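Protein 1 of 2
SEQ + STRUCT:
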Amino acid sequence: MGRTTLTTEEILRLRGQKNIVSPTKPYAFLVEPELAEYGNVVDVATIFLTNRECPYRCLMCDLWKNTLDVPVRDGDIVEQMRYALERMPDAKRLKLYNSGNFFDAKAIPRRDRIEIATLCRRFETVVVENHPSLCNQQCIEFKDRLDGKLEIAMGLETVHPEVLPLLNKQMTLDGFRHATEFLCVNDISVRAFVLLKPPYLNEREGIEWAVKSVEFAVGCGVSCVAVIPTRPGNGAIELLAERGDYSPPQLRSLESVLEQSLAGPKTYRVFADLWDAEKFSSCNECMAARIERIGQMNLTQTVPSPVQCHCGEVEPV
């Protein structure tokens, strides 16, 4: 099967313009409900930190749009956190997403981590994102500064043996497994990001490999998985779409992955990312009901009665 493969240079060349962002303000922040591991729904604050661009140029990533071309200065991240925390309602948990890797010293200055940890003390859990290759002693040192629990989110993306190398992730499944085992042994929880229908897969394959990826993550010790529909918008994905190597997943496919992942007894949580979910629906009549149902599955980890509709979004093909 002939697949379009893109180098880092080609991925960069296909990009559009970045958004204008400030090094002293987060580019977004919000509070939303999430089911905790002990079964209660809690409010979770998320701060989208403005940071330097991630050095890993993944094929499908569009997070570079809200990044800087230069590193932040010492103190900038702390100022961003203060700005957001002063303006958000109280929450039990905090996610710090920096469009890259929290433990990249060129992204989050080491000397800021003490003050960052101090600002995190009111939260029972703090979630940061990181590449598996950067999971090391720094993670343990930061965990020890927190009063609450540390959770590290890593992009697994897919376990498809041919597709993963084409994503320019610079990661192997063994690398992901070893990072997860290292974190778990050191009492750090792990959250994984799994892509629904990355490039090069059709609809049915997209569902199948997303479910397999969830299973692999959980087998490694991951306690929470977020399934994310692969979206267009970064230039490279549009080129792949033109060449027949990508099409957006259906909303029903996201629903199906969640249904299958929640089918049996669980020691983990699986969430579906519903950002812009309406763009993946081909039926206006059942779209709202499907999104509501997926949201219900997110918050209860149970599978409610299916949505009944005469449309084609009954069984993905």
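Protein 2 of 2
SEQ + STRUCT:
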Amino acid sequence: MSRAPKPRRGRPSWRQLVALLLGAMLLATACSSGGGDKKGGSSGGGTGGGTGGATAGGGSPSPTVDPARVTITPVDQAQGVEVTSTVHVEIGPEDKLDSLKVINARGEEVDGGLDGDGKTWKPKQPFTFGSEYTVNAVASNKVGQKTPSTTKFTTVTNDKKITASFFPENGSTVGVGQPVSITFNAPVKDKAAVEKALSVTATPAIEGSWHWFGTQRVDYRPKDYWPVNTSVKVDLNLRGIDAGNGAKFEQFKSFTFKVSSSKTVSVVDVNTKTMKVYKNDQMVKEIPVTTGEVPAYATWGGKMVVQEKYEKTRMNSQTVGLGSEYDINDVPWATRITTSGTFVHGNYWSDAASTFGKQNVSHGCISMTPDNAKWFYDNAASPGDIVEVVNAKEDVVAADNGYGDWNLSWDAWTAGSAAKA
């Protein structure tokens, strides 16, 4: 009997291979469905460098938190910034400004602070002309991530400067009649702007006002003489103020002075040819004097203020427009009370018995014996002490001739204020 033939083991066909592969893939997909994320795999990913991603339970991706937004003005590398500028920082609505510092060219932090809105930083005093400043700001977003920001700016240069000088001197003690006097080295066109940058603080407080004499001098005085023992602080907040002609101030400073504990007023009567010296309204001495010869050299009338004094000085008539009338090298105990040249001084060249208290023979000054002049010099001639001439045969001294400020009524005085006009 014949044996049936064995079948051949051939290789699977390509159709069979494809069918096998497809089946394996379907099986793998069915096994892994819904389970991959539990092992931390990412099913999609978020923006911002992968900070989003899937939640632990396989939910929706969390939102991206943007860094804090910081915008600083003046902008980086700004040039010609006004010295009166502020620094403004704008941040995002949900951001917080953590710190803001301004550093000068010497690496020092500039004194200043943020105002009420928390966005505007103001220096305690204006910036310096022609200087570079660095602004360092740090802000944080709502999740606390901090964003630092740094900018630099340079202030405008000041090629046309204007300066102010002042009296009384810082730290000095003066008499009750001493005004605050500010003089400028160039004309001031915008008087109101300059005046508003000046302030006077008296302790105890007292009513006072500024008054302009022309365009280069402004004085401040109270309505009445300063009370004794008053402390006065004057602020010249002028830096960056335009005087109105293209010239800007650079000064930003304060000075203080004290009013004497004694109110000293010396009253000269041209008719009686006497000087009566009062301390705190009590007469302490009467001195025989001679005043200006009438009518040629009559002494100014009104209230004058002691400006300066010399133990000995030269007096030459040519310096006050009187030709060659006199030239005395050693006039003793001389106290100036007007800019035009009125002095209280000692007189050794006249006969005392027939002159002082007897006749008016001077060239406009108030003179007395050297001994009496020294007493006056020592006791009644501090800067700011008052000398008042009554019954004068001459006009009242001009308010700007020295410190004749007190010869103006209060209404006339306050009318000279540019800020109140």
